[in-house]
Amino acid sequence: MTSVLGVDGWRGAWVAVRVSWSGGEDRPARILGWDAGRFSDLLHDDDTVIAVDMPIGLPESGPRRCDLAAREALRPAGSRVFAVPAREAWATADLGAANRWLRAAGEPGMSAQAFALRAGIAEVAEHASDPRLVEVHPELAFVELSGKVLPAKKTAQGVARRIQALDGWVDVLGALTSAPPRVPVDDALDALAAAWTAVRVAAGTSRSFPADGGDLDGSGRRMCIYA
Fold first, then answer.
1. How confident is the model at residue 101 (pLDDT cuts 50, 70, 90)?
2. pTM score, two decimals?
3. Does residue 26 have a pLDDT over 80?
4. 194 by DSSP, 3-state: which?
5. How far apart are CA 64 and CA 83, in angstroms?
6. Quick one: which of 34, 30, 33, 31 has its CA closest to 10?
7. Average pLDDT of every residue of the chain
8. Cα separation of 49 and 90, whole Å?
9. How far apart are CA 185 and CA 42, in angstroms?
10. Residues 6/192, Cβ–Cβ less than 8 Å
11. Contact by Cβ (8 Å): 93, 83
12. Contact present, 56 and 135 (Cβ < 8 Å)
């Protein structure tokens, strides 16, 4: 029996679910527990894979090929994937300065929502050398689970379809019932989807976007999204 961790960003912090499994993603998993807080406080030594819905690795010039591949896989809802701009843009003082730098470099600007991820990206980057850490995207996981792009996650249909997609792999309603108080249902479902991908990574059955493993960032780590 092995444990993996699925992590999703939530209100400037993180929500994580730890599951145990034996076999692959087609075998039922058991919820070991939920946690919320700082990223570094969520990690356990016995986790074999830590799957996080956050960019890992910044390009010298954007966009990353992994983001483009993920967007293509999610057509017509490709905008659900945030295209990570160049490293230099993140080092600027504020959003205005970031967009001025991007425009001068001939690259698209980024939104306030995207720029707000800067702290989370930096927090995860502190652990980028941990070989257990992988970047995932829940929307890709749900495509793999259901065979199609699902309705927006904040709609009633979107929530219902995501519960249906995870049903059979885990007791979804039981998992949601035990989630930390005040965590929105879409964030909890995203963490569960990240954990499902973590099982696939551990079992060697995951898909990578792009298929060739992606380009290297400045530290030599491949920029790749798993599902």
1. very high
2. 0.95
3. no
4. helix
5. 7
6. 34
7. 93
8. 27
9. 19
10. yes
11. no
12. yes
Measure the CA–CA gap between 188 and 204, rounded to whole angstroms.
Answer: 25
CA distance 211 to 214: 7
Tens of pLDDT, residue by residue over 61-71, are: 878 999 999 99
pLDDT score, position 24:
66
Rounded CA-CA distance 17/92 in Å is 33
CA 215 to chain centre: 18
Considering only CA atoms, give the Rg of the chain.
17
Do 50 and 133 touch, CB atoms closer than 8 A? yes
User: How many C-beta neighbours within 10 Å does residue 28 have?
Assistant: 12
Domains defined for the chain, CATH in brackets:
2-56+128-208 (3.30.420.10), 83-116 (no CATH)
Q: Report the b/e string of 31-54 with b at 16+ CB within 10 A.
A: bbebbbeebeebbeeebebbbbbb
As a whole number of angstroms, the distance between CA 203 and CA 27 comes to 11
pLDDT in the model for residue 62? 75
Whose tokens are 């007791």? That residue is 171
Q: How far apart are CA 165 and CA 159, in angstroms?
A: 10
Where would I find the beta strands (DSSP E) of 11-153?
A: 13-21, 30-37, 47-52, 133-136
pLDDT of residue 84: 93
* CA–CA separation, 165 and 78 (whole Å): 20
